[in-house]
Design goal:
This protein has helices at about 5-25, 30-40, 50-55, 60-80, 85-115, 120-150, 150-165, 185-200, 205-215, 235-265, 265-285, 290-320, 325-355, 355-395. With about 400 residues, the protein is mainly α.
Amino acid sequence: MLLFLPFGATSGFVSVTIGYLAKQQGLGDAAIAGLVATNLLPHTFKFFWAPLPDTLLTRRRWYLIANVVSSLTLIVIGLVPVSPQTVGMLRTLIFTNSLAITFLGMAAEGLMATVVSADERGRAAGWLQAGNLGGSGIGGGLALFLAQRLGAQAAFTIVAVMLIGCSLGLIGIREPIRQARESLVAALRDVLRDLWDTIIRSRNGLLAMILCFLPIGSAAATGLFAAIAGRWSTSADSVALYTGLLAGLVSAAGCLAGGWLSDQMDRKRAYAVTGVFLAVIAIAMAVGPHNEVGYAAFTLAYQFGSGLAYGAFTGFVLEAIGRGAVATKYNALASLSNIPIWYMTEVDGRASEAWGPDVMLFVDAATEIAGVIVFLTIAWLLLRGVRQSQAAGVH
C-alpha cells in the first residue's frame, strides 16, 4: 500500500486539486475531463514498455527512478497557474508525470506478484489498490487543502516530497534474483511468449482481456466530483475532505473488501457485481438531495464502490497472469482496463457539460449496466462452447 500511494496520489492531484482549481478559473466540465483523461492516457498503452521492468535493472531501481521523476514533475506542475491559457502546457506536464508513474506501478506490481503466495493474492490486491485509491483521495485532498492556504506551488512541493518518502517501503522486501538471460532480445522473446501462453491462449486470460474493454467498474464519475461540487453547494474545504481524505479512506476500505470478495467467489463474477453497485449509487446521487449532505453521502458511497471494483479487478488479474513476466502480463490487462476509464471520463465530461451532472450520472450508470450485460452474455457463450467441447469429448 505504501509503495503504491504515489501511483494513486498523482491521479488525485489532477481529478481533485487541478479539477477544482480549474473550475474556479472558468474551465468547463469537458476541458476538466480532458485533463483527467490525459492523466489516464499513458496507462491505456503502457503494456508496450511493460517488458522493460521485467528484463532490465531491478524492480527496486525502476521504482526509485520513477518516483523521483514523477515527484519532480509534480513540483513543476505546481508552478503553472491553472487557466484556460495554460491547458496545453498542463496536458503536457500531466502526460509526462503519468508516463513516469506507469514505471513505478509496474515495479510495485511486479514485486507483489513475485513475493505473494497464491492464496493471499486477493488480500494483497486489496492492499495494493488501497494505496492506489487511498493515495488518489488523500493526495488530491491534501494538495487542495494546502493549495487553498499556501498556494499550488507550495502544496505540490510538500506532497511531492512526501511521496518520495514512500520509497522507504522498499526496505525489507527481498526481490527474487532473476535468471540470467543471453540477451535483451532473448529476454523480450521469453516475455512475449509467456504473455501469449498465459493471456491470449488461456480461456481465463481471454475472458479477463474481454472484460477489460468494457466500462464495468470504470467509476469514471470520480474524475468530475470536484468539478461538479458547486451544483451540490459544497465548498472547497468540503471537497478536499469528501473527495480527498475521507474518499481515500473509504475507497481503501472498498479495495480491501473487493480483494476479500474476489477470494470468496469467482473473481470475474465479483468484478461484474461491483459494476452493478456503482450504477445504483450513481442513480441515487442523481435523484437524491442536491446539498452538501447528499454530496458527501453519495460521493463517498461511489468511492467505496470504486474501491470494490479496483480490488476485485486486481484479484482476477493476478489469477490470470500467474508467475513469469508479471509486469508485462499485469500491465497488458491493466492497460486495457484503463481504456474504458479513459473514454468514460470523456463521455461523462461531455454529458455533464451538455446536459448537466444529473444526466451525466444516469449515463454513467447506464454504461455500467450495459457492460455487465455484455460481459455475462460473452461469458455464457464462451463457457457454453467449453461445455459442448467437453461433452463431445466424453461421447
